[in-house]
Amino acid sequence: MSSSLPLVLVHGLWDTPRVFERLRQQLAGRRPEIFSPHLPHRFGATGLLELANQLDREIQARYGTEQPLDLLGYSMGGVVGRSWIQLLGGHQRCRRFISLGSPQQGTLVAQPWPRWPLAGVADMKIGSALLQRLNGNLAPLAKLQCHSYYCLLDHMVVPSWRGVLPVGSVERLPVQQHRQLISSPLALGPITEALLA
């Protein structure tokens, strides 16, 4: 069962693994292994593919090269996780991928920022080279159970409908702010159910 697999949680920009504290509390005793690596993003200066490579190293150091797992990415972490899945072979071992408030189709918030010195932010622009590359070959995602969650008035993913994967199920959560996606009981309830299904 997928709920017995390790669960990897990938944080977003200006966050650390502490952002998942409430989700961890919800899952306590119900997911046997939860891993939240710290990926230093340098305030958006580190490119998302570089962060995906860091994620790959962290996963391999903890689980080796073959252990199946589930992955949830919050905010920018969802694009980092997707890059790992699609570009670094993660699809070979990831069974379920949950994208939570992630700019999978880009966000207008990132549009004004130059690639130097903010490569990670620029990767989240609508039409960025990274997102074009990811959207150019969806076959790796098609092999996974993919689920996207978003909120209508997300101030970080603008417009909010761009915050979903191009494959898999999509659910709008009844919260009003980006941060509430990972902190409000109204969001954590459905997410927890999905992670335990």
Task: Kindly describe this structure.
The structure is a single chain. With 197 residues, the protein is α/β, with parallel strands linked by helices. It has one domain: Alpha/Beta hydrolase fold, catalytic domain (Rossmann fold, 3-Layer(aba) Sandwich), CATH 3.40.50.1820. It has seven helices and six strands. Helix 2 packs across helix 3.
Structure characteristics:
197 residues; Rossmann fold; 7 helices; globular
Structure summary:
The chain is 32% helix and 15% strand.
Number of helices: 7
What is the domain total for the residues?
1
Categorize the overall geometry: globular
Describe the main β-sheet briefly. Answer: 6 strands, parallel
Q: Quote the beta fraction.
A: 5-15%
What Rg do the Cα atoms give? 15 Å
Question: What's the level 1 CATH class?
Answer: Alpha Beta
Low-confidence runs (pLDDT<50, min 5 residues)?
Answer: none
Q: What would the CATH topology be?
A: Rossmann fold
Distance between the termini: 8 Å
Secondary structure class reads alpha/beta
Q: Report strand order across the widest sheet.
A: 2-1-3-4-5-6
The CATH superfamily turns out to be Alpha/Beta hydrolase fold, catalytic domain
Q: Level of helix content?
A: 25-40%
Task: Give the ordered list of helices and strands.
Answer: EHEHEHEHHHEEH
Mean pLDDT: 96
Q: How many β-strands, per DSSP?
A: 6
